[in-house]
Structure formats: structure tokens, C-alpha cells
Amino acid sequence: MHIGLVGLGKMGGNMRTRMRNAGLTVVGYDRDQELSDVASLDDLVRQLPDDAPKVVWIMVPHGDPTHATVDALADLLGEGDVVVDGGNSRWTDDELHAEQLSERGIGYVDCGVSGGVWGLENGYALMAGGSAEDVAKVQPAFDALRPGPEEGFVHAGRVGAGHFSKMVHNGIEYAMMQAYAEGFELLEKSDIVDNVTEVFDSWRVGTVVRSWLLDLLVKAMQDDPGLSQIRGYAEDSGEGRWTVEAAIDNAVPVHTIAAALFARFTSRQDESPAMQAVAAMRQQFGGHAVRATQESPDVPPATA
């Protein structure tokens, strides 16, 4: 199989290597010419053979970069060809892209990809959305990327189903990470446990909380005991928000995922205005002590 791959960053570059290792011919394009096999998208499409449907897989950031790439490919590809979006696009964008490309007779498949920087060695979990005909055209690439011949790939449903599934996967990931993080803080703060890293390490085999995330956390703790070199600041890339929004639309309670998302918002505040208000109210109604900011060292006592 010949396939074009747009976006050769941490994920895309490793995916190119894994597909090539499986015997696929991959032509990669990236704005960074040191990473790219060709000078432009036009060159990429020209290098794909004309005697089979041309398949171009996109691995660029969601939003405007993906929109622009789909727009460009709509003018370069033809009837029977297929575009695959393997980035973290919102599923509603998939519906728009599929409609746009269908006007040119071009198929569209959305594919949630999970595996991160370890995917080159371990393979990727793949969740595809689209018609059975379009998915079949991409199947050799899916088979090359998945962890094994019988695992790690699902045709999840119609267009949008792949990214919707990956979105929910990432929402669950938020919640799992938050649970481990809260357990870490509690163990660190207690004066009972001496070897927090070793405790987490002991959970990695034979317990119901074992997971790859736990393995990665233990590695981080071994590299940096107490995680003293890492600031407690966590971004969110969008999928957690979209999961909560979808839950609202479908009247599904996602208490844990929502709490994990809000915890990330809290992590970005040097001083939480909400908690400042809580402290102020506690001082006012109960005379509870408050801690002054550096700018205001003198805090007046509460009135009765």
C-alpha cells in the first residue's frame, strides 16, 4: 500500500516509521522540511500512484490546521480517494469535513489514535469512523499501526464515531490520572508512609488499580522522587471539555470526569479567586484565620 502522511511530529513521525517497518510505502509531508519527504502537499499527492485509491492521513493539530489541510486536499484528490483525520478533532468537525469532501467524490475516515510516543514500539489503539468501503481502503495502514493482528482496532461506526470514541477515552484518562494524583498527594502528606514511590510500585502487579498510567507515574517518581522538579500545572487539550459537553447533551452524569477537568483549571491558578472568596466568608461568619497575600501582609481581624 502507498499512503500519504501529513504531519510528522511526535506522533506522525513514529507512525510513518511503524508503517514503513510493516512494508507500506509512506510519503510524508511536514512544514519542517528537515522532517519532510517532499516539498509540498502537491508533491505528496503526485507521488501516490494513480492505479489505486489515494489515501492521505492527516496528523496535525485540530481546528484551523486540520481545516486548512482538508481544504487543500479537496482540491488535490479525486473521486474514490480517501482522507483520514487521525488527529484529535472534534467529532462535529468530521461531519463537516465528510460533507465537504463527498461533494468531490472523496471519502473520509476519522480515526482516534492512542499510544503517544510509545506507539512506535507498542502499536496504537485505533478507533475509526466512516463507511465500510472507505475504512477498507485504509485497512492495511490500520493493520500496520495496531498493536497486533487481532487487537487494538475497531470500526466504531459512522463518520465521527472514531473521534467521539477517542474523546470519551481521553475523558476517562483524565479521571484515572486525577485519582492517582490525589492518592499520591495523600500518601505524601501523611506521616505514616515512608516510601511513597515503592508503595505505588507495589501496586503495578496483582492489584485492581494496575495500568500503564500507573507504570508511567512510577517511572516519573523514580526519576524525580517527590516530583519536586515538576510544577503542578496541567493543560487540557480539549477532549475533556468535549466529553463533559457531550454528557450534558445526552443527560449522562460524568461526575468524576468533570471533577478531573475542573482540577486542571485549578492547577493554572497561582491564587484561586474562588478559594479567596471562601476564605473571606469563613473569616466574616466565624472569625476564622486567613492567610495574607504577599502584597497585603496586614489582614484586619474579622468583625463580629
Brief account:
The protein has 12 helices and 7 strands. The protein has helices at 10-21, 41-47, 64-76, 91-102, 119-122, 132-145, 161-189, 196-202, 212-223, 239-249, 255-267, 273-286, and strands spanning 2-6, 25-29, 55-58, 82-85, 107-114, 125-129, 153-157. Residues 162-296 form the 6-phosphogluconate dehydrogenase C-terminal domain.
Give structural notes.
- This protein is an alpha/beta fold.
- The model has no long low-confidence stretch (mean pLDDT 91).
- The protein contains twelve helices and seven strands.
- It has three domains: 2-159, NAD(P)-binding Rossmann-like Domain (Rossmann fold), CATH 3.40.50.720; 167-267, Orthogonal Bundle (N-(1-d-carboxylethyl)-l-norvaline Dehydrogenase, domain 2), CATH 1.10.1040; 271-304.
- Helices cover 49% and strands 12% of the residues.
- The chain has helices at 10-21, 41-47, 64-76, 91-102, 119-122, 132-145, 161-189, 196-202, 212-223, 239-249, 255-267, 273-286, and strands at residues 2-6, 25-29, 55-58, 82-85, 107-114, 125-129, 153-157.
- Strand 6 (125-129), helix 6 (132-145) and strand 7 (153-157) form a beta-alpha-beta unit.
- The protein starts with a strand and ends in an 18-residue tail after the last helix.
- The radius of gyration is 24 Å and the shape is elongated.
- Helix 7 (161-189) packs across helix 10 (239-249) and helix 8 (196-202) runs antiparallel to helix 9.
- It has a seven-stranded mixed β-sheet with strand order 2-1-3-4-5-6-7, with helices on both faces.
